[in-house]
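Example (one chain per record):
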Amino acid sequence: MPLASPVQLRSRLPDVGTTIFSVIGQLSAAHNAINLSQGAPNFPCDPQLIAGVTRAMEANHNQYAPMTGLAALRTALAEKVNTLYGTRYDDECEVLITASASEGIYSAISGLVHPGDEVIYFEPAFDSYAPIVRLQGATPVAIRLTVPEFRVDWDEVRAAITPRTRMIIINTPHNPTGQVFDRADLDALAAITRHTDIIILSDEVYEHVVFDGKVHHSMATHPQLAERSVIICSFGKTFHVTGWRVGYCLAPAALMNEICKIHQFLMFSADTPMQYAFAGYMADPTTYMALAGFYQRKRDLLRTLLADSPFRLLPSAGSFFMLASYGHFSDEPDSDMVQRLIVDHGVATLPLSAFYSDATDNNIIRLSFAKDDATLRAGAQALCQVNPRGPR
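Predicted structure:
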């Protein structure tokens, strides 16, 4: 039994409960469901990474790293970003190693957003953005992506900007829709923010997972946007080690100074042995440049396997995710559909409504293809057995 407490509480987030990821995870475990819900690989990472961590530990690199991160790793990142995106960040004051991309997002919002500010973000959205904004006493302003293309209406963004707009949160490649920004999107964002004090927070954790020969249009590829952007990336997503909880942040020095003020009291420094391993591993660029082809093969495999399913698959241009619509054969809420898939068919997905602040339901579910081929085959087989309940 839980301990009873006599303390009267006043919640900072009274309407926030357990995340959808935990809810679905618990239900899936109860039914031993095939996991196509979580954006975490279920296959092993490169043994070289484990060996790198082991060597670091054996060499007694087990104490605090520098607050901003291991110098060799910051230098490697600055060189990588300069080579790929054309912006040179100062590895002394414009690169920060964080204890996960999530910590980087929290530190950036907390350090740069103030009470009374407004922060524009786009829904469907990763579920942490709005709560973090609210914790600063600021107001999250949700703008919906168009359906089913899931593109930004830049005229709507322009109309939503007020004198209180402090930040716009971008996510490309996008979770949960799998869409990516193109150059026109960056030009539109630059035009909207020109001559303002608006900061761009760009969540680019899937930066190396872009398909069909397309390129990742990082904020660092656009000089005007780079000057006002905080870019967040993830070693965990890139190298199949989401449990290691290491990410990084890039920003102009003035912005980074404020972010570091939060980071130093939140985590002080990210895990030391992992930083040594990443610094050595990144010496070979193929460790991250081969990711697009690797995950495109998984996307294509899942798409092929689901060709005979009743679901209609939406395009996925990047990330670990693919959306599937079912409104043509059922009008049941997506949360009910997801539960039915777990209980009746033994396969776990996520309802897209969980990524909207008002639970908007478009009869769409999210699938993750960041799984080994056996899991993809088993999950697809289960989804192909779904019996439509009839036309709408």
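Caption: The chain has a mean pLDDT of 95.
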